[in-house]
């Protein structure tokens, strides 16, 4: 499967549809070239590894007491460093990120995740290395 977004539920966006078409085309091109016997050299790629789901701050009654800070909103996949603002309480207090490394939040303030008690997901950037590959069926 391919998930391209974010995109609000029930909304069709031309730019998102175009991204989805491009990634599916690249996947199909790879399969065709692989099946034709093309050898692919080793490569390294940066990816984001999910580390932790982060909930909204809550009170003792399990009620949300803060919202996503405006500086974090719409910043999916952007670096978040120690001291950067995360949440804004209903009283106007800023809750900052406290971490020992840079993380890359995603799925920030997504409506589909409210019921799952998820404000965003913390990811870290890592490098994956793939060996060369070639179809053995020729």
UniProtKB/TrEMBL annotation:
Span of the signal peptide: none
GO MF assignments: hydrolase activity, acting on carbon-nitrogen (but not peptide) bonds, in linear amides; metal ion binding
UniProt-listed Pfam families: AstE_AspA_hybrid (PF04952)
UniProt-listed InterPro entries: AspA/AstE_fam, Aste_AspA_hybrid_dom
Keyword vocabulary terms for this entry: Hydrolase, Metal-binding, Zinc
GO cellular component assignments: cytosol
Domain annotation AstE/AspA barrel-sandwich hybrid: ranges: 44-123
Protein name: ACY2 Aspartoacylase
Species whose genome carries this gene: Chordeiles acutipennis (Lesser nighthawk)
Lineage: Eukaryota, Metazoa, Chordata, Craniata, Vertebrata
């Amino acid at each position: 499967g391919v998930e391209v977004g974010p995109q609000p539920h029930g909304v069709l966006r031309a730019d998102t549809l175009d991204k989805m078409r491009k990634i599916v085309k690249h996947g199909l091109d790879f399969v065709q070239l692989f099946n034709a016997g093309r050898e692919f050299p080793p490569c390294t790629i940066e990816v984001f590894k999910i580390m932790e789901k982060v909930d909204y701050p809550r009170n003792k009654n399990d009620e949300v007491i803060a919202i996503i800070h405006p500086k974090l909103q719409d910043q999916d996949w952007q670096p978040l460093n120690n001291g950067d603002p995360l949440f804004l309480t209903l009283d106007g207090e800023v809750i900052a990120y406290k971490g020992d490394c840079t993380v890359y939040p995603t799925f920030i303030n997504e409506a589909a995740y409210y019921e799952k008690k998820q404000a965003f997901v913390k990811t870290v950037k890592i490098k994956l290395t793939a060996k060369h590959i070639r179809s053995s069926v020729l």
